[in-house]
Amino acid sequence: MTRDAARQPHLLAIIELGGYPNFTPLYKRLGFDAELVSSQRKAQAALKRRMPQVIVAEYNFQSDFRDRTSNLETLMARLQKHPEVRVICIYQPEYQHKLDALRERFPVFAALPLPVTEAAMEDALRRALAAANDAG
């Protein structure tokens, strides 16, 4: 990691299904050192290397899970030890009620319904940066 990257706020984007714009140029424009991974398993490995200030992740409801309802629960359980991390969640509107139930158990900083616009993502990222700066 370069000295400049160490000073930049770190963002971890977990893109499992996609279906929305590539926000990497936005992340960089806002000054983030962005890391993109394609699965929750890779996200867990990334968290061992470096804890980000912001995580952008998808909420993917999956009724066939035996012990959980979505891809985010393992991530959110791990982040309980890191309440300073701001999680921005992208979700399908038809599963908002399931996401709301998850949010009763875990702190999701912002939830953005599909289709996600760059303006909505930028607003959430700016608020997350401001909250991280206020806390730090």
Task: Give an overview in words.
This protein has helices at 3-7, 24-29, 40-49, 73-79, 96-105, 118-135; strands at residues 10-14, 33-37, 54-59, 86-91, 110-113. It has one domain (3-135): 3-Layer(aba) Sandwich (Rossmann fold), CATH 3.40.50. It has 6 helices and 5 strands. Strands 2-1-3-4-5 form a 5-stranded parallel β-sheet. With 136 residues, it is of the alpha/beta class. It is globular.
Strand order, main sheet: write it out: 2-1-3-4-5
Quickly name the level 1 CATH class.
Answer: Alpha Beta
The N- and C-terminal alpha carbons lie at a distance of: 21 Å
Q: Runs with pLDDT <50, length 5+? A: none
Provide the CATH superfamily. Response regulator
**Oligomeric nature of the chains:** single chain
Q: How many domains, in number, for the residues?
A: 1
CATH architect. name: 3-Layer(aba) Sandwich
In percent terms, what proportion of residues is strand?
15-25%
Radius of gyration: 14 Å
> Which percent bin holds the helix content?
40-55%
Number of helices: 6
Biggest β-sheet strands, sense, barrel: 5 strands, parallel
String of helices and strands: HEHEHEHEHEH
By secondary-structure content and strand pairing, the structural class works out as alpha/beta
Whole-number mean pLDDT: 90
Shape: globular
**Number of strand segments:** 5
The CATH topology annotation reads as Rossmann fold
